[in-house]
Predict the 3D structure of the following.
Amino acid sequence: MENTTLKNSTKVLAPLGLVAFVVALWWVAVTTSKSLIFPTPGQVVLGFVELTQQGLLLKHVLASLLRVALGYLLAAALAIPLGILLGWFSGAYITVNPLIQLLRPISPIAWIPIAILWFGMGDSSPIFLIFLSSFFPMVVETTAGVHTIERQYLRAAQNFGACRLKLWSVVIFLAALPQIIIGMRVGLGVAWLVVVAAEMIAINSGLGFLIIDSRNAGNRYDLVVAGMAIIGVIGLLLDGLMRRLERLDVVRWRYGH
Amino acid sequence: MGTKITVTDLWKVYPTRNGSLSVLEGIDFTVAEGEFVAIIGPSGCGKSTLLNILAGFDWPDRGAVALDGKPVSGPSPKGIFIFQTGSIFPWLTVQGNLMFGLNGLPRAEKKRLADHYAAMVGLKGFEQVFPFQLSGGMRQRLEVARALMVKPEVLYMDEPFGSLDALTRLQMRIELLRILSRQRHTVLLVTHDVEEALHLADRILLLSARPARIQSVVDVPFPHPRKLSNPAVVELKEQILRELGVEDAV
């Protein structure tokens, strides 16, 4: 491909340049339109500094990350084993898959009223919503990962008389792992999307709360945009973290080397 | 030499949308202990089906396969199957693949054996490498080594070197003969390459076009190492090609 000939420095500088350009455009647009509410990038940076000094930024970030961690890990712990079982046992698949396909298109946001009904206004509701949002991509990808295991590997395992433990751990799980990791990456991305929305319902911490609260408490749009920027940056970092998993030796065979 | 494999009146029919498709019709033969038998036949004649049935991966509609006098009821480590597309696990290292088939040994012992077999097929120094970092020939040698690790009584090879280039294929044949001269195995080889069969086998079964019957059995009496340009070998090759109906090409 053409981009292999690009220098590494270009790969970093070009996207940074674009971001700088968008920020500059934003700055010019706000200044020329003389908007009283929409903040300039400078004001957002000042808002960011203010949040950091008050220790609020760290508090909100940690609150959101903790909710994501709990909901996401719970989802992974259930979705991956379930996905493997559905991929392997066709009876389970034909029974359970239609229900999954029925529930999957329902946005986690639509579950908010039910979450409040079941879990109240505390931390459990957003955790439940995150669980829901990341559960489906993980179960679907894991199932597909097991479905697409090439037959010759299963034949070889059978031929060598692999015991059940070896069949499940060394053959089925590892063969499906590349796609499980894709599911985990998609799941984490969706979880991070949803945490912000989930925190907009009457909770007193988290980045979603920060955004809504900043608007309600005196139209502090500098803080709103600062919160949005932080969400973007953390989302990027989380995705980068998941991409590192794709470079593990045991899965490199699937992703191209 | 005792009889290792007995194939009695094997029939196989596949149901298709347009009625049933008869693949094997009354296949009978025996393979002696330590014998190398090649199976040649026209493309799509049922060679692979036959080998799959022998190894226990498929079932005949009629007839029986016996290994050491006992009916074959499914695949087992007694007979390892090697096929063209390969079944080396790409997520395990060379060493991990070699150790896969070993059960119930201490880990250190498994490692020692794996290193021994890696060296035997020329993969010394590659123990910690993943298969995608190996060439096609090295991968196929790994496949053979992994099979030999479990000391199988029979090797079932379905066009094992078919995906390799001509030169690598020739090297693999020489390598296989070298290994077999050190530790004898009964081998069944399905191939469409007459030269390969003449190079390796003690006996060649020629199958007819589908539905497959055994058209003739050719003994290959030449001692190893064989020279394929030897006039007697060339003559036998021409005879086999004539039997397969491609005499004009010779």
